[in-house]
Amino acid sequence: MVGKVEPRLLFPFLWVLLFVGILLISKGLHFHESLLMTSSKEVLNVHPLAPINAKHVDLINNPFTLEGHMFWSSIVGMNITPGIFDDCRNLAGELTSRHPLPKVFHDMYGPFKSKLKTVLSDGKPPEGYSLKYKGESLVFWNIITRIPHIETVCETGFNTGSGTLLWLTAKPNVHVYSFDIGDHPYAKPMADYIQEQFPGRHNITWGDSTKTLPLFVKKNPRIQCDIIYVDGGHTYAVSKKDFENFSKLGYTGSVVILDNYPDYRLTFMKDLGGMWEDNRRLMNILEVFKCTYGRMRKQGFSFGLLTKTTTHT
Ligand SMILES: C[S@@+](CC[C@H](N)C(=O)[O-])C[C@H]1O[C@@H](n2cnc3c(N)ncnc32)[C@H](O)[C@@H]1O
User: Fold this and answer.
1) How far is the CA of 186 from the centre of ligand 1 (A)?
2) Which atom of ligand 1 is nearest to the CA of 160?
3) What is the 238 CA–ligand 1 centroid distance (Å)?
4) Where are the membrane-spanning stretches (predicted)?
C-alpha cells in the first residue's frame, strides 16, 4: 500500500542531502586549488625541507605530474615552469630568507674562506663560483639533501672547491669526483685542503676534461653519477663533451646541472645554451628548471634529469 509521504518526514533527509552537497563542493574546490597552484606561496605549502622517502622517488623523475611539479617547486622555492627562463632572484627571495644554508655548512665554510685567503697570494679574486649566489646554493643544497639516493657527485670545474665543499658538507655519505684543468695556482692547495677535511671522500683528476674524462670513464665504468655538474670549460665543445662523458656514468634520473646558462651574453647563450638546448631537443635531458638573474638576464643555471634514450658515442 503506497500512501502519501508526510512532508515533515522529508526534513531530516533534506538536511543530510544538504550536508553531503556542501562536503562535495568544498572537496572539489580544494582539489581545483591544488591543481592550479598559481602562486609560489601555495607551492610552499609543501614544506620546503620536508624529507621525501623511497615511496616518493617516482615523483622525482616526473616533474610534469602534479606531485612531481610540487616536489621540484618546493626544491627551488618557486613555481617551476619548465622550458622558460625564470628569474633566479625569486629563489633567493623565497628561500634564503626562510631557510638559509644551515650552520653545519657555515661551520665548514668559515675556515674554508680563511684558507682560501692564504692561497690567493696575488690578491686577485678567484674565478666565478656558484656559492656567490645564495639562492642557487640553497637549491643545490636542497637537491642533495632531499633526494635520499644521491651519494655520488661528478663535476667538471673544481676551481677553489667551494661547490665541492657544499656537496661534501650536505651528507656524510657523499663522494665527489672532480675534474679540473688546474691552471689556477690556488686550485691544487685548495684540493689538498678539501681532502684533508673530508678524508677518502674526494677524488680529483687534473688536466683538460675532454681528455681525462674519457679515460676515467673507461677505467671506472661502475661509478654511478647521481649528480652531473657541468661547470668546467665554458665552450660549446667542452661542455658538450663533459655532459656526454658523464652521461656514460649516469642513469635515467641522474640530476644534470649546468652552471652559467642562461645568460644574456651571446657567447654564453650560444655555447652553454646551445649545449643544453641541443641535448634537450635530443631528449637526453628532461629540463626541470632554468633561471637567469633579473632584467639584465645575468648568468643563472639550469638543471634537469638525464634520460638515457639515446646512446652517446
Ligand atoms: C667557473 S669555475 C668552476 C667553479 C666551481 N664549480 C665552484 O663552484 O667553485 C671553472 C673551472 O673549470 C676549469 N676548467 C676550464 N676549462 C677546463 C677544461 N677544459 N677541463 C677541466 N677544467 C677546466 C677552470 O680552470 C676553473 O677552475
Assistant:
1) 12
2) 9
3) 11
4) 12-31
Give the residue extent of every domain in the chain: 74-306
| pLDDT, tens digit, 9 for 90 and up, residues 207-253 | 999 999 999 999 999 999 999 999 999 999 999 999 999 999 998 88
Query: CA–CA separation, 21 vs 13, rounded Å?
Result: 12
- Could you give the 3-state DSSP secondary structure of residue 172? coil
Pocket of ligand 1 contains residue 209 by CB under 6 Å:
yes
Q: What is the DSSP string of 263-288?
A: -SSHHHHHHHHHHHHHHHHTTSEEEE
CA count, 13 A, side-chain hemisphere, 73: 22
The CATH number of 74-306, from 3.30.300.30, 3.40.50.12230, 3.40.50.150, 3.40.190.10, is 3.40.50.150
Q: Is pLDDT at 141 greater than 90 in this prediction?
A: yes
Measured from the Cα of 184, ligand 1's closest atom is 25
What's the pLDDT score for residue 59? 61
User: Which ligand 1 atom is at minimum distance from the Cα of 128?
Assistant: 1
Inter-residue contact 108 to 170 (CB < 8 Å)? no
* DSSP H or E segment with residue 134: helix 134-146
**Residue 191: CB atoms within 10 Å:** 21
Task: Look up cell 669526483; give the residue.
Answer: 177
For a substitution probing ligand 1, which of 112, 115, 156, 227 has the most ligand atoms within 8 Å of its CB? 156
